[in-house]
Amino acid sequence: MANVKYYVTKRSTGKWAVIRENMNRAAGLFDTKREAEEYVRSLKSAEIVTSHDAKGKFVKRTAIRKEQKKDDCFITTACAQYYNLPDECYQLYTLRKFRDSYLLGSNKYESLVKQYYKFAPLIVLKLNKEDNKENLFSEIFNNINKACVLIENEQFEEAKELYSDIVKKLMLKFRII
Question: Which of 79, 148, 155, 156 could form a disulfide with 141 if both were Cys (CB 3.0 to 4.6 A apart)?
Answer without folding.
Answer: 79
